[in-house]
Amino acid sequence: MILRRLIVLVVTVLSVHNSIALAAGADSDNPSAQKYVFPFSKVPVTYSHDHLQYPAADVHGCFARVLAPTAGIVFDVQAKDLWDEKIDAPGTRGGLTITIHGKDRVRYFFAHLGRVKVKPGDHVEPGQWIGVMGSSGNARITKCHTHLGMSRICPQSEYKVLQGEIWPWKFLDAWRKGINKSPVAAKNRIIKESPKACELAAAQD
């Protein structure tokens, strides 16, 4: 038991260290050199070009495979569904979740999964199978789907920015067509428009 806890602690520390390095580093001089893929396969999926309250995409296609959209590090995994309808805590609404810190310094958040296939600290490559679409969290009372949020990497623990601050649909449209469209410029615009978003979100948690 002690050995297992030590292993988990080492993996977590390494994951945080690697992710902080990604967050602190400079964007690639050539963002187009970063490879992107459409992050769903095996089952046809649909998504709209809007989302309630904040930029994100709810992708529908129950049991579709969820793939890493680009290379990066798995920063966080919630492998247990902690959502309680009576309490409805915002940080648990996503159910089973995976957060990837891309090498492009964009954060990719997948929620309402039915299965996760990665752990914190894992390095992932574009198109790598990381999970399965499901109905965990508050999707238990809506319908099976995967929530995709794209954002800057915040150094603080927060949830509001994590949910999404970049509209994913334009990138999903491009990746589905095989166009290697980078979200780096969109992320940088958002940071310029609201440089204190991470701090404000952390203060609200």
Structural features, described:
24% of the residues lie in helices and 24% in strands. Strands 1, 2, 3, 4, 5, 6, 7, 8, 9 and 10 form a ten-stranded antiparallel β-sheet that branches. The chain is globular. Mean pLDDT is 88; it is low at 1-25. It is of the alpha+beta class. The protein starts with a helix and ends with a helix. The chain has four helices and ten strands, in the order αββββββββββααα.
What's the arrangement of secondary structure elements?
Layout: H1 2-24, E1 40-41, E2 46-47, E3 57-60, E4 65-67, E5 72-78, E6 96-102, E7 106-116, E8 123-124, E9 129-133, E10 146-152, H2 169-176, H3 184-193, H4 197-204
Antiparallel strand pairs: 1-4, 2-3, 3-10, 4-9, 5-6, 5-8, 6-7, 7-9, 7-10
What's the helical proportion of residues? 10-25%
Summing up helix and strand content along with how strands pair, one would put the structural category as: alpha+beta
Query: What integer is the average pLDDT?
Result: 88
Largest sheet: 10 strands, antiparallel
Topology, number of strands: 10
Query: What order do the helices and strands follow?
Result: HEEEEEEEEEEHHH
**Alpha-carbon distance between the termini?**
32 Å
Continuous helix count: 4
Radius of gyration computed on alpha carbons: 16 Å
- Outline type: globular
Low-pLDDT sequence parts: 1-25
Strand portion, in percent? 15-25%
